[in-house]
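Dear colleague,

Thank you for sharing your sequence with our group. We've completed the structure prediction you requested, and as agreed, I am returning the results in plain text so they can be pasted directly into your records. Please verify that the sequence below matches your submission; if there's any discrepancy, let me know and we will rerun it promptly.
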Amino acid sequence: MRIKAVRGTRDITPDELRKWRYVEEVARDLFRRYGYREIRTPTFEHTELFVKGTGETTDIVEKEMYTFIDKGGRSVTLRPEGTPSVVRACLENGLFGQLPVLKLSYIGQMFRYDRPQAGRYREFWQIGVEAFGSADPSMDAEVIQLAYQLVTEVGLKGISLELNSIGCKRCRPRYVEDLREFGKRHVDELCGKCVERIERNPMRLLDCKEERCRIVMKEAPVILDYLCDECAEHFAKVREYLDLLDVPYAVNPRVVRGLDYYTRTVFEITAEGLGAQNAVVGGGRYDDLVELMGGKPTPALGFAAGLDRIVASLEAQGFEFPIDEGIDCFIAVLGREAKPVALKLATSLRREGFSVEMEHLGRSLRAQMKTADKLKARFTAMIGEDELKSGRITLRDMKSGEQRSVEEGEIPYILRRGGFSDGADAPS
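Please find the predicted structure tokens below.
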């Protein structure tokens, strides 16, 4: 019986991975321009990290984590999101304080036991950034600008950025209590999940995707009416800076995000192509998380972008990903005696930095040329009986079809030039 991939996971084949690498390369270059350095954290952590960091009452911790007991009797969890791991790594490795504002980025796998559907998997990849050390609203604006620039630079269309402030631990409690009372008055109209959330985490009522709940919550209290003076001023400045930077946004008081650690600014970016699962970026400020995890009070904010969702959205929008340019040279081998020469030539060219494939199966020249075409080889070097006698190699330009007999030492210069020339092929 053939074993298949676990439900909610999938293989990323070479052709598909080409699309992923394109998005990753755009992201890495953009993060470099904004001053972010990459960090990598373990795929699994002590379960307590996510219970404490992500939040006990979140759906992630309550229902979606892959948690198990290891052979040492410790409870460990495959990371469901990146931020708690980054904070833990900064505290453990003494990264805080190295710079006035510490900027870090990451790309990695996350795991959540969720219902698989279009744009949602149990193993998924996130691209994220975290910025520690500044409470200034200009930092919020820069991070949001970075997120917006990421989705635009990769080529997404139909982008919508929604912004909100969920206040702080001084002003939010009153809102949460009024929202809880609102939920109790409408308990008969809400879905089962939302009924459970009324007591444990009423702000998640605003995040429900059930249509009946969305209708009810249109009449719910609005968090922006509860902000303290400091939070209101902060949110006003964030919007002012975004206007200055020409970043288009809409204020949506229903955006709350699904994680307990957020404070003040939260935002989401959606794109066309994935139906209901159209959120491709989400993030916000989390000024209390570092202290909660044992560090000094440290203002912070960041975002995570779904790599899977970005690629799927681009595909749905008909985006033309960069074409695989193929290899520099394919070496066709005609006869056993030619193989040692071919192996030495392949090694020499690879050391020069060229991508090279060669024949290992002893097939006909016609079959080998078909392989060279499939590999999109720029040149094909042919080594057979005639070449062994003459000590020269037949090189074909696969674009023009031109073919010449050349010295082995000339080949790197021809490959580097991208074609033959009428003058000497090697430098004098």
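Summary note from our side: The two ends are 63 Å apart (CA to CA).

Kind regards,
the structure core
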